[in-house]
Amino acid sequence: MKEEERILEEVEKTLCALDDLPTIEANPFLFTRIQARLASEDVSRKTSLAGFIELKPIALAVIIVLNIITAVYFFNSRSSEYSKDQLIHSLSAEYNSTQNDF
């Protein structure tokens, strides 16, 4: 019981100490400065987002061109090395199936 009373006394002392602190006046232009900074960050965020949106079609076009180049290179190199029958045989051997399954 004494322990609880001591804790309550310490809490009361702490609260009284906080009541005795003087009030601090804030800068009257603080709210205006905060609003200005938020507005400038909002504008910079919009411009960076607009730049990103403008780059999406370019990035998509580059990816499509790279895919086409890769596909052409892949099929040209593969067609000279293997015939259709060799590809079917290697796939069936790899997946343990017969030609009747196709």
Note the run of SSEs as H and E.
HHH
User: What is the radius of gyration computed over CA atoms, rounded to a whole number of angstroms?
Assistant: 37 Å
Query: What is the 3D form?
Result: elongated
The number of helical elements comes to 3
For the terminal residues, how far apart are their CA atoms?
Answer: 86 Å
Coarse structural class: mainly alpha
* Mean pLDDT value: 78
Biggest beta-sheet profile: none
- Fraction in beta strands: under 5%
The poorly predicted ranges are none
Account of the protein in words:
- It is a single chain.
- The chain has helices at 2-19, 30-81, 84-94.
- The model has no long low-confidence stretch (mean pLDDT 78).
- With 102 residues, the chain is mainly alpha-helical.
- The N and C termini lie far apart (86 Å).
